[in-house]
Specification:
This is NADPH-dependent FMN reductase. Residues 2-148 form the NADPH-dependent FMN reductase-like domain. The structure is a single chain. This protein has helices at 17-31, 64-74, 92-100, 121-133, 166-185, 187-190, and strands at residues 3-8, 36-41, 78-84, 109-116, 138-146, 151-152, 161-162. Strands 2-1-3-4-5 form a 5-stranded parallel beta sheet, with helices on both faces. The longest helix is centred in the C-terminal third of the chain and has 20 residues, at 166-185. With 195 residues, the chain is an alpha/beta fold.
Length: 195
């Protein structure tokens, strides 16, 4: 069984990310029932701005919140990042969470589900560059949810419902398949066993 973490990349009050992550988890449960998918909500970790003395690559974590975060991420074989687009990039909370740790990310595949006015495509491009530095290969397939077409709103300040069209379901299924395949393929690398 492959274990995949669905990371909610925004901590902003009123965010739509949690609802998007729940949609991802629902499709994953339906399409990939033999694999294990968990939602990892950054808001549940309340990470401060990076406050570690040593660089993350050293693995010398001095704070309890860093150790808790590292242990949570270490359990997974791969990830699906759910991110909005803030000013052409990812939220600061997501960048901060990525920067806190290093080895726990290495050699695990990732997929990106973006949402925003333009599907968070620019944020996804920035995220791909960051993930590459962390030795996280991001799969090509990407979901880009439009606030205009894939959500319904009851009021401008309410998160609204996620209502993706059938093509989004198909794209997400392909993304999940890719993440599973690559996560399994990278297992020998994570275990330090090279053929």
């Amino acid at each position: 069984m492959t274990k995949i973490g669905i990371i909610v990349g925004s901590t902003r009050p009123g965010r739509r990310g949690r609802a998007v992550a729940e949609w991802v988890a629902s499709v994953a449960a339906q399409e990939r029932p033999t694999d294990d998918f968990d939602i990892i909500d950054l808001a549940d970790f309340a990470l401060p701005l990076l406050d570690e003395t040593h660089p993350a690559a050293s693995g010398l974590y001095g704070n309890a919140h860093t150790t808790r975060w590292a242990e949570a991420i270490a359990r997974y074989d791969g990830f699906v990042f759910v991110t909005p687009e803030y000013n052409h990039s990812i939220p600061g909370a997501l960048k901060n969470a990525l920067d806190f740790i290093y080895a726990e990310w290495n050699n695990k595949a990732a997929g990106i589900v973006g949402y925003g006015l333009h599907g968070a495509t620019r944020a996804a491009e920035h995220l791909r560059l960051i993930l590459a530095e962390l030795k996280v290969p991001a799969v090509r397939t990407q979901v880009a949810l439009s606030l205009h077409h894939d959500f319904t709103f009851t009021a401008p300040t309410e998160p609204g419902d996620v209502t993706p069209g059938p093509h989004q379901h198909q794209t997400l299924t392909a993304l999940l398949d890719d993440v599973i395949i690559w996560s399994r393929a990278l297992q020998p690398v994570r275990e330090g066993v090279l053929a």
